Amino acid sequence: MAHSLVPSARPAPLPARAGLGLKPQHFKDVLGQGPDIGFFEVHAENHMVAGGPLPHFLTRIRERYPLSLHGVGLSIGGEAPLDEAHLQRLSDLIERCEPAVFSEHLAWSSHGGHFLNDLLPLPYDGDTLARVCGHIDQVQSRLRRQILLENPATYLAFASSTFSEADFLREVIRRTGCGLLLDLNNAHVSCTNHGLDADAYIDALPLHAVVEVHLAGHAVDEDAAGAPLLIDHHGSPVDEAVWRLHERLIARLGPLPTLLERDNDVPSLATLLTEASRAERTLARWSAT
Fold it and tell me: Where are the alpha helices (DSSP H) in the chain?
């Protein structure tokens, strides 16, 4: 049975348009040019400060555009209890910037009081399921809102897993009422690395729960056996295979808020807007059908 949320005042939902990750080097261009983009997304941990330029610019941009807030530090899958201080800072940030959505990762990133600065994989078994659901219930109760859980990019699988990743996500969403942030680059990266079919993986997900979509670039390497190994690095344009997955998904579900992530080798705002226009054309094409 889904966890019962305590409602709070909500900003308007994200529009079913293309969005961009908001980077400090683009703050002035965004405010000066007012680009025609659906929304911006920011990493929560970068904005957990009380003063200075970041809150100033974020407040001004939030006045003009919807925001998606994306967390990387809650360690939803970690064995330790959630960090209460981090959760309070997150709650304070959400109160200040009123994002349309908040999302986190199906991963762990801390152990023994140390933050590992990475999003690490989980065994998909009953113990992990209970822990992840308990943490999501705690976060949703504290924030008084639904959160979105993002499917991870992975490079290994645990022999001890008793669920497929898609079935695990389906059960988490059923038990907690959280939503799904479907990262199509992560789906392509993980399925390539594990020799799986990305279309079949996506079809097995609880697609009714998708609230936001992520697109990103990846690096191509090879493992010790010479097989392709994809690395989720957010440092290049979206790959054609990921664009195909996006077209297929939107054809099936209709237009959804679609974010282009670029966290490394970040180009000009104009370059990112050009890439985002491709997602915008896909969304517009299927909104008319």
Answer: 27-33, 53-62, 84-97, 126-143, 165-176, 184-194, 198-204, 240-253, 269-287
* 92/80 Cα distance (integer angstroms): 22
Reading the block at residue 245, the tokens are 């997955």
pLDDT over 90 (residue 72):
no
Mean pLDDT of all residues in 8-24: 86
Q: Considering only CA atoms, which of 237, 200, 233, 208 is closest in space to residue 219?
A: 233
CB 190 within 8 A of CB 152: yes
Q: Please name which of 162, 208, 205 lies closest in space to residue 186, comparing C-alpha atoms.
A: 205
CB atoms within 10 A of CB 31: 13
Could you give the count of Cα atoms lying within 13 Å of 30 in the half-sphere of its Cβ? 24
For residue 18, the cross-strand partners are 258
pLDDT band at 24 (very low <50, low <70, confident <90, very high): very high
Give the position of tokens 């097995």. 204
What digits encode the pLDDT tens for the residues 207-238?
A: 999 999 999 999 988 877 778 888 889 889 99
Q: Token pair of 278, please?
A: 């491709």
Q: Is the model's pLDDT at 43 over the cut of 80?
A: yes
